[in-house]
Every structure is written in C-alpha cells, then in structure tokens.
Amino acid sequence: MSMSQQQEWFKEWFDTRYYHILYQDRNDDEAQLFMRNLLSYLQLKKDSKILDLPCGKGRHAVYLNSLGYDVTGADLSANSIAYARRFSNKSLHFVVHDMRHPFATKFDAIFNLFTSFGYFDDQTNIRVLKNLKNGLKKKGVLVIDFMNVNYVKQHLVKEETIVKSGIEFNIARTIIDSFIVKEIRFAADKKEHFFTERVRFLSLETLQLYFKEAGFAIKHTFGTYSLTEFDLENSSRLILILE
C-alpha cells in the first residue's frame, strides 16, 4: 500500500458494502442511550441545528431528528449518503462532505461520534478542528467521542476472526508510528480483499494541544456512554465536550 493510499484508506473502505457488513451489529440501543444522555447534559433547545459528521448511513441523525432537532448528516461516502437520503425530510438533511473542508452552515452543536477523528497527520487534524469551530454558532458545542488510548493499549485484541453474513473477516491490530492500525482480510465475491484502518493514537494531552490551537476549550470529559466521569486508566471512551 502506498503512502497516499494509507493516508486515504477511508475513501475506498467506507464506500464498500463490506464495511457495513462488518459493522452492521453496532449496538443501536447503546448508541441511542448515549444520544439521550448527551442531549440531557447539553440541554439543547428542540429547534437546535445539529451536524452529525461523519454520519455514515444516517442512523444517529435519524434518531436525533426523531427527538425534534433539525439535523444535517454529512459523510465522505457517496454510497452512504445515497442510502441515508431516503430518510430525508424538511428537518433532516444529508450531504456528501469531507471534514477537511469548511462547512457553509452554522450549527448549535456538532457531533463527531464513534472514533471518527484522528485519521490524518497533526496539521490536518487541527485543520479539521478549525473547520468544526467555524461551523459552530456563538456558544455552540462540539462533542468528540474518541477512544481512550491508555485503555486501548492495555486491552488491544491483536488478532480475531469475525463472521458476518457468511464472510469471515480476519482482523489484526497493531500500534505503528503513533497510529492504531487494523488490517482486515477476507474473501468475498470470488476475490480476496484487504483493507486497512488507521486512526491516530491521540492522548488527552495531545488532543488538548490540538484544541488550544483550534480555539476550543474543554468543558467536560466523560468516560462511558452513560456519561460517567473520565478515568485515564479505566475508561473505555474519551468523550469530550468542547466550546
């Protein structure tokens, strides 16, 4: 894999049906509980404008909209957005968008969920944050749901096999050059496939430097989707509330 392919791994992988097969059983109940807890904490008004970035096929955007919010879901994957648009209505919108580019609209809140940050080098990650900052209204809030790298380091599953829809996904995880790298190999449709996921191994200290440069301040940190307090060693997630 070339360096450019490594850097742009998400463009092809997220647009395949295999990506959605592998991750099809993500826990909707847990995700909706997280959204309810988050909204209870944020106390957003019902007509607030929320950006879900990236939104995938729109399951969280659809749920947020069902609670009375004006929601825009944005994602780099044209296939995912084409699927999500079947749920569109006057207060639920879906657009193809690369988070490395500014957003034209201002929002009361932007949600970046389920480790959808840290795909790039330092300067590009900071540029993404500046774009998000510019996409917020005055007193707007950014929520980043990231992994707790201290926890991941201690609990990393180096190899596993997952079978979904008759496809055997062989997965290997390593930490290389400040990235958590997941290699995914499988056979499907009479072909051998190989995809790689690379997410920057970002500590809270590094993230704080990012936020300072982008003009954000941390309002609160949580460690689980139930919004328990963040513990550096024991929390599985690092959920950041930023203003």
Silhouette: globular
In CATH's first tier, which class of the largest domain applies?
Alpha Beta
Characterize the largest beta sheet: strand count, sense, and whether it forms a barrel. Answer: 7 strands, mixed
Helical content stands at 25-40%
Question: In the CATH scheme, what's the topology name of the largest domain?
Answer: Rossmann fold
Level-2 CATH architecture of the largest domain: 3-Layer(aba) Sandwich
Q: How many discrete structural domains?
A: 2
The arrangement of helices and strands along the chain is: HHHHEHEHEEHEHEEEEHEE
Mean pLDDT: 93
CATH evolutionary superfamily of the largest domain: Vaccinia Virus protein VP39
How much β-strand is present in the residues? 25-35%
How many strands appear in the DSSP assignment? 11
Cα-atom radius of gyration: 18 Å
User: Kindly, what is the distance between the CA atoms of the first and last residues, rounded to a whole number of angstroms?
Assistant: 38 Å
Low-confidence stretches: 1-5
Strands of the biggest beta sheet: in what spatial order? 3-2-1-4-5-11-10
Helix and strand content put the structural class at: alpha/beta
Number of helical runs?
A: 9
